[in-house]
Design a protein that fits this description.
- The chain has 134 residues and is of the alpha+beta class.
- The chain contains 3 helices and 9 strands; from the N terminus they run βαββββαβαβββ.
- Strands 1, 2, 3, 4, 5, 6, 7, 8 and 9 form a 9-stranded mixed beta sheet that branches.
- A hairpin with a 5-residue loop joins strand 7 and strand 8.
- The longest helix is centred in the N-terminal third of the chain and has 11 residues.
- Bound molecules: cobalt (II) ion.
- Cobalt (II) ion (CO) binds next to strand 1 and strand 6.
Length: 134
């Protein structure tokens, strides 16, 4: 059911420093910061030949990244995103398998303008999983 790895998201305590590290130390192609107010994050997209890295930094008062950074002050991997062809079909299949979908279970429009859902990390070996319809 899942397809390509769309991105790995990393929460960072200092967005400029992390972007500079990917650009200068790792030699990656790093984009400009983009505010995503609906998701409570500022994102920097890093294009790799086979996938993307998204650096996440809190935006606003109720950012889902704030608590993560309190627990992981130096930052850390926040989620992985897999592509699916039909997000509603994927959701219904996962729910039938006993997996928990976060929020109200309805897809939201994600950072790439496409429908996304998140799955409970406790159901996926401690990893928050995002599904994105492509
Ligand atoms: Co994501």
């Amino acid at each position: 059911m899942i397809g390509r790895l769309n991105h790995v998201a990393i929460a960072v305590p200092d967005l400029d420093a992390a972007a500079a590290q990917y650009r200068d130390t790792l030699g990656a192609q790093v984009g400009a910061p983009q505010d995503e107010p609906d998701h409570g994050v500022t994102v920097v997209f890093i294009e790799l030949p086979n996938t993307k890295i998204e650096l996440l930094y809190p935006l606003g008062d109720n950012s889902p990244i704030s608590a993560f950074l309190e627990k992981n002050p130096s930052g850390g991997m926040h989620h992985v995103c897999y592509e699916v062809e039909d997000i509603l079909e994927a959701r219904d299949h996962l729910k039938a398998q006993g997996a928990r979908v976060l929020g109200d279970g309805e897809p939201k429009i994600g950072a790439h303008g496409k429908p996304v859902l998140f799955l409970h990390p406790k159901d996926f070996t401690g990893t928050l999983v995002e599904l994105e319809q492509v």
